[in-house]
Amino acid sequence: MKETENNGSKSASIKRRIINYYIYNGSSTIPDLSKELNLSVPTVTKFINEMHEAGDINDYGKLETAGGRHPNLYGLNPESGYFVGVDINKFAVNIGLINCKGDMADLKMNVPYKFENTQESLDDLVKIIVDFIYEVKVDKEKILNININISGRVNPETGHSHSIFNFEKEPLASVLTKRIGYKVCIDNDTRAMAHGEYLQGCVKNEKNILFINVSWGLGLSIIIDGKSYNGKSGFAGEIGHVHTYDNQLICHCGKKGCLETEASGLALHRILIERIQKGENSILSDKVLANETITLDEIIDAVEKEDVLCIEIIEEIGQKLGQQIAGLINIFNPELVIIGGTLSLTGDYITQPIKSAVRKYSLNLVNKDTTIQNSQLQDKAGIVGACMLARSRMFQD
Q1: Which of 148, 197, 36, 212 shows the shortest CA–CA distance to 390?
Q2: The CATH number of the domain covering residues in 81-194+382-394
Q3: What is residue 210's predicted lDDT score, i.e. its pLDDT?
Q4: pLDDT digits (tens, 9 = 90+) for 125-136
Q5: Percent of the chain with pLDDT strictly greater than 70
Q6: Cβ neighbours of residue 40 under 8 Å, at least 6 residues apart?
Q7: Which distant-in-sequence residues (6+ apart) come within 8 Å of 17 by Cβ?
Q8: At a CB cut-off of 8 Å and minimum separation 6, what does 21 contact?
């Protein structure tokens, strides 16, 4: 597979197209593949035979049909390559390994990690990745690519992170490639989550999708006609930093009044503390009044225990977010809007206010064809997406 990825010839390009077809569509017959790639059956047969002999493609036997000849079904050989995904959260790292077919071969969730924009935090991240690779039970030479999800402004094509770990002029992806010893690419965390949901989550046949990541921050991924829309520099989707309020709250981007200051995990955390300190009651009151740290996971847990104050704030955030999603629906007319990220774990408590606001603030003719639903992968969306991006980016033509 390394030859397929590195060789820039026309032959290698066709092989990459074949691999990409199998990545996004699963196993298929040669006639179906020929039709999709607009190549003759003899040409496709020649390449499939070469790739089968090289161990990249498996023959999965005869396809059962109603009558006539039973064509052979071909697909990716799961053991021909492996890909590592790394999903960075504020207080932990999720790290996984998939085989070439996209099956999860190893997974570690919630590895303790303090995510800060410091050299020490970057060093810790490198150690976590290196230790994980050392421990996996696969041929290390078959690990072909690593994708790391980074929050904020990321250019996946150049490998630059403009928000986090931008200590050197050299692209972060290049720095990590040298330090880890494997090819590394980076992408925005919300785009990775959307990619995971697209390939292994709630997306069925939809091609025009908005993915809203409501975690500590607020992000948006846009999929148009089945392809991620990244914008010129890879920064598309910064919905959290749209000026929406005159609240004088300074966002971490340095500006005031960003949507993220009122509709995000950060906002939920801040508003809950403020309201408890003003005398409102919650099962988290004792911790807050004792100046103990509370996490988003604890707030989500309080919602699941039907804490009235936490539920009320979540619903208010859903209303605010729904107003902005209504505008996005008017602009993009998507088939599907997916609500993902940590706050999506509250289920209907956040999605119902979003749907209510969308009905109120968007055009009926536009929103009637849009489905709004929660992420199916939930807290695994980021790590699944990171692994899938590692594989997809390896074979992009």
Answers
A1: 148
A2: 3.30.420.40
A3: 97
A4: 999 999 999 999
A5: 96
A6: 34
A7: 37, 397
A8: 28, 33, 36, 37
Q: How many CB atoms lie within 10 A of CB 94?
A: 22
Banded model confidence at residue 150, pLDDT cuts 50, 70, 90: very high
115: left (phi over 0), alpha (psi -120 to 50) or beta: beta
Tokens of 168: 């050197």
Q: Which two tokens stand for residue 148?
A: 């790391």
The answer for residues whose C-beta is within 8 angstroms of residue 219's C-beta and 6 or more apart is 151, 188, 189, 190, 212, 213, 237, 238, 239, 240, 341
CATH fold label, 2-77: Arc Repressor Mutant, subunit A (1.10.10)
Which fold, 204-375?
Answer: Nucleotidyltransferase; domain 5 (3.30.420)
Phi first, then psi: what are they for 61, rounded to 5°?
Answer: 90, -175
Q: Evaluate if residue 397 carries a pLDDT over 70.
A: no
Determine the Cα–Cα distance for residues 346 and 338; give it in Å rounded to an integer: 14
The SS3 call for residue 233 is coil
Residue corresponding to tokens 């199916």:
376
Block residue for tokens 């990619």: 195
Its pTM stands at: 0.88
Q: Please, which pLDDT band fits residue 2 given cuts at 50, 70 and 90?
A: low
**Residues with Cβ < 8 Å from 139, sequence gap 6 or more?**
none
Name the pairing type of β-strands 57-62 and 72-76. antiparallel
The 10s digit of each residue's pLDDT in 175-220 is: 999 999 999 999 999 999 999 999 999 999 899 999 999 998 999 9
Q: Do 81-194+382-394 and 204-375 agree at the fold level? A: yes
- Three-state SS at 329: helix
CB 72 within 8 A of CB 30: yes
Beta-bridge partner residues of 57: 76
Residues 213 and 316: their CA atoms lie apart, in Å, by: 17
Domain map of the chain by residue range? 2-77, 81-194+382-394, 204-375
